[in-house]
Amino acid sequence: MCFRPVRKKEPIYVNQTTYRRRRRPARGDAPRAQSPRPAPESRTRRPAPPATPEILAAVAASPFSALGLSTPLARAVLDEGYTTPSPVQTEVIPAAVSGRDVLAGAQTGTGKTAAFVLPILQQLALDDGPRGGIRALIVTPTRELAAQIAERIEAYGRYLELGHTVIYGGVSQQKQEAALRRCPDVLVATPGRLLDLMQQGLVRLDQVRHFVLDEADRMLDMGFVHDVRRISAAVPAVRQTLLFSATVPPAIEKLAGGMLTRPLRVAIQPRLTTAESVEQSVIFVAKADKRRLLESVLRDEAVERAIVFTRTKHGANRLSQQLSKSGIGSEAIHGNKSQNARERALGAFKSGRTRVLVATDVAARGIDVDGISHVINFDLPNVAESYVHRVGRTGRAGAAGRAISFCDREERGLLTDIERLIRCRLRVQGA
Ligand code: AMP
Fold it and tell me: How far does the centroid of ligand 1 lie from the alpha carbon of residue 71, in Å?
């Protein structure tokens, strides 16, 4: 099933008095751990104008309310233009709002972020327990994913008074320390920086009640398994755990075995088998001719916004420079670039200033840019699963997209691996 993001509409405002009232402490409650708290930058302070009966009715009738989401969250989701929950949301949200553990096999692009963010925000907002510590922890492999999850929390939580912050490596920790001192309710983190700050005594996880592992298979691939175990051990055992992974191989089952309690298991079909909207093809080409071929593909007007994948960081840099010399503006994004340079490149790509992004697999992981018309595999990936992730950058949320793979003589074996994994032969296109 496809779900289509709708063009952003004006926010729908609903009176949220009921919601606020539930959060007020009862007479005789113990004082909150740190009160009053200074508001983190991420705390939403936009006053909600009173709702019209039509708006209230629209929110009440929304399929997101039917999943058990409260009015402020259902309203925020409608603001985002979502009309129908995606399959992973339909399955996960009702269980997760009731506090159940979940093990979900779902890739980026399926709407998985909302599937874990919405239930967590709901439970935090309704929890009348003590405040002043991190109550939800979301661990994700890359900086880009961490930033995107934080951006989603901001959007979905816009009518709640919850604070969040995001920490990741590659940037100075000073600002992150300051944000942590403001006691966010939700912390989004990459494993390395989180452990660093924990060791320095700057992060305490003893108040965490909701723990999310996002893209768990990728964390294992990136060698974070011990970090993840250490983080999990630092989170109180009495908690809700939500584990999301694109694939669920035995290593993930093993990890989940020790962390989850009678989880709801959800398996969402890999996007490749369902995303019929992506037209995939392969072009057989000599290695030496790949660059010329790429230039001619990119000059086609149908290419509105393209990600070109290379196998190495060096290859990404060189190719981007060569394209620029030929008059095709592009940016390269890979792990050797500073966080600022990556953000600049991504910003230029998102805004449309740059039409072509040349990327390596790890750097492109989790890039959430709408309207990517083409994914071009300049080099085929060494690992067939990476093909699935690459192609998932286009055709997002049901939109049309094209994936073109260049295959030289030495890459024939890799092509066979990919075709075996996706259980289909790629259409052969003339060079
Ligand atoms: P994710 O899989 O979380 O990376 O989400 C992929 C994209 O789908 C993001 O741009 C979301 O904003 C969007 N999205 C998530 N849920 C929905 C929905 N129910 N309807 C439309 N778009 C959605």
Answer: 19
What is the whole-number distance in angstroms between the Cα of residue 30 and the centre of ligand 1? 40
Query: Tokens in use for 166?
Result: 């995001």
**How far, in Å, CA of 92 to CA of 115, rounded?**
6
Q: What is the mean pLDDT of residues 315-342?
A: 88
Q: If you measure from the C-alpha of residue 99 to the centroid of ligand 1, how many angstroms do you get, rounded to a whole number?
A: 22
| Domain end point (choices 213, 239, 267) | 267
Q: Please give the sequence-ordered ranges of beta strands (E in DSSP) within 237-388, or none if there are none.
A: 240-245, 264-267, 278-284, 306-309, 330-333, 356-359, 374-377
How many domains does the structure of the chain reveal? 2
Nearest CA to ligand 1 atom 16: 111
Cα 106 from chain centre: 11
Nearest-CA residue for ligand 1 atom 19 is 85
- Same-domain status, 230 and 321: no
113 within ligand 1 shell (Cβ under 6 A): yes
Span 28-76, pLDDT tens digits: 333 333 333 333 344 444 556 666 788 889 999 999 999 999 999 999 9
Do 332 and 246 reside in the same domain of the chain?
Answer: no
Residue 307 structural domain: 278-428
Q: Is the CB of 397 under 6 A from ligand 1?
A: yes
17 within some domain: no
- 258 and 301 part of one domain: no
Distance 237 CA to ligand 1 centre (A): 31
> Taking the model in full, what pTM does it have?
0.64
Task: List the 401-407 sheet strands across, edge first.
Answer: 330-333, 356-359, 306-309, 374-377, 401-407, 278-284, 427-429
* Cβ–Cβ < 8 Å for 282, 302: no
Measured in whole angstroms, the distance separating CA 119 from the mean position of its chain's CA atoms is 16
CA distance 50 to 15: 5
